[in-house]
Amino acid sequence: MYAQNVSTGTQGVRDADELSPEEAAFQARIDGNIKIEPKDWMPAAYRKTLIRQIGQHAHSEIVGQLPEGNWVTRAPTLERKAILLAKVQDEAGHGLYLYCAAETLGISRDELMNKLHSGEMKYSSIFNYPTLTWADMGAVGWLVDGAAIMNQVPLQRTSFGPYARAMVRICKEESFHQRQGYSIMMSMVSGTPAQKEMAQDALNRFWYPALMMFGPSDKDSVHSDQSMAWKIKMNTNDELRQRFVNETVPQAHYLGLTIPDDDLVWNEETGNYDFSQPDWEEFKAVLKGNGPCNRERLGARIKAWEGGEWFRDGLAAYAEKAAKRRVAA
Amino acid sequence: MPSLSDMNTDDVTKLADIAAAEQTHDAHVTNVETRPAFFEWLCRMGDTTLILGQRLSEWCGHGPALEEDIALTNTALDLIGHTQLWLGLAGEVENEGRSADQLAFLRDALKFRNVLLVEVPNGDMGVTTMRQFLFDAFHYELLQRLTESTSPRVAEIAAKALKEVSYHVERSTDLVVRLGDGTPESHDRMQQALDILWSYTGDMFVSDGVDATMAEAGIAPSPDTLREAWLARVEDVLDEATLNVPDNASCIPAARPANTRSIWATSCPICSFCSAPIRAPAGSRWRGAV
């Protein structure tokens, strides 16, 4: 998922008799599956948590442009170039809807950008890994977009209206993105031995970082209960991770690729694959800013923002002049 | 998550073959006499859109605002689409079995035939925006004339591209005016960009033997006939943008050696680095059935 470890700022879920009348009415609407809209009353912690979650999701979309954008100029055919361009453009579009959804909660896009650049807000850990070969474009589409879909499909039913509606369109596009990633993998595994090796190598490098995308294990996920009561999180991290593994393993087999996990085994009893957990220490280190590409990614965003200041100021100044001219006319 | 069967799309090559079989008949495509000139001219068209598409792609994820990032990649996407059509037709005219991809990725930088303006490195957004406007204004005039080509295939591509380029020129015009008449800094950057780029604009209107053959066959207008309309539009927009048109005499075409279209071969955006994946050994697969 694109939002990991989102703090709710609460001390767990309170009982119904501890809620104020306003809070009780709010929770009743959520329990009745009635969407919360921007002008409705909402608890301050719900608003704050949503800003964190939607903001982190939006940041992930735009930082997520970088590892793939890096390969647009080097895509191996004109068609692949066009598809990748369209895909990365979609991701920027997702960022745009999500920043707009966050704005309805009373925070501007510029404020959110500043929080990203200062390190106060995070983006998904997955984008701090490098994309080394063309096969990584396949692995990112297949696994990263695949993991994102796992989380985002249920979020179409999330309690906050603008977020849920943004997610409907995003999910349609993400599903297409995953198919394009899988299509790259399909081509590569049926090419030369070197290409197949490249595809396997990409799977090896992206498998565990993709599993980390769902966030820490449920037992370590301290904020989940409140987020689930508010229906801004629909499933637990472990549920989604398990579902992802169950669906992805047969897809890897179809490609003739091996999941890099010696302990991966189908469990008849539970009807699930048993699998190894990612290295959670690595996950924490990446979130803290010590992944392989954290500095590069954030540096690129800051450079784009600062380098574009004169451009944004120029457009704003013209708009002001034009408005004055209209008044004078 | 899509099901496994959903992940297997129809074979793109088969779809492309069906589309190819439905192509409009065009006697120019098989005319042996005009073949070398027609091929060369189509490469000029395809290389120009390819190089600019490539340059704009470099901005992907690095734009000054999200809307701008989307617009730049969208323009790049349109131009890559035009490249597929122009170079695809070039391959057919050449009749030596080369595909658009082979023409785009497997020629050496010195064999590229793009107009010089689109090669100029991105610089800041001032250079990128001004380069786009100066080219869009030319591209628009050219495509409009090409919709009347005696080659139905050229006219079809031009009609499709014109729809997109009409929007490109509208957008770049708007940005040039806003930034030129924005803050003192944005004005200065736009003027500086114009001063850098102006000397490369003359090259777009250089007409040689290839162009004469194309004009004679009614396939394409001679580029020199586009300059008047281009200049009129450019001067109007620059005036509104409060920018000064540099001295017309400072254009570069006369200085360009014969038959050499590219002067930045070393910084060519389709260099061996960019095309490394497709230079992989025979049998490599990058899409369905290639």
TrEMBL record, chain A:
GO terms for molecular function: phenylacetyl-CoA 1,2-epoxidase activity. It holds the Pfam family PaaA_PaaC. It comes from the Bacteria. One of its GO terms (biological process) is phenylacetate catabolic process. Signal peptide: none annotated. One of its GO terms (cellular component) is cytosol. NCBIfam families: PA_CoA_Oxy1. This is Phenylacetic acid degradation protein. It comes from Salinisphaera shabanensis E1L3A.
UniProtKB/TrEMBL annotation, chain B:
The lineage of its organism: Bacteria, Pseudomonadati, Pseudomonadota, Gammaproteobacteria, Salinisphaerales. One of its GO terms (biological process) is phenylacetate catabolic process. This is Phenylacetic acid degradation protein. Transmembrane segments: none annotated. Pfam families: PaaA_PaaC (PF05138). It comes from the Bacteria. GO terms for cellular component: cytosol. PANTHER family: 1,2-PHENYLACETYL-COA EPOXIDASE, SUBUNIT C, PHENYLACETIC ACID DEGRADATION PROTEIN PAA. It comes from Salinisphaera shabanensis E1L3A. SUPFAM superfamilies: Ferritin-like.
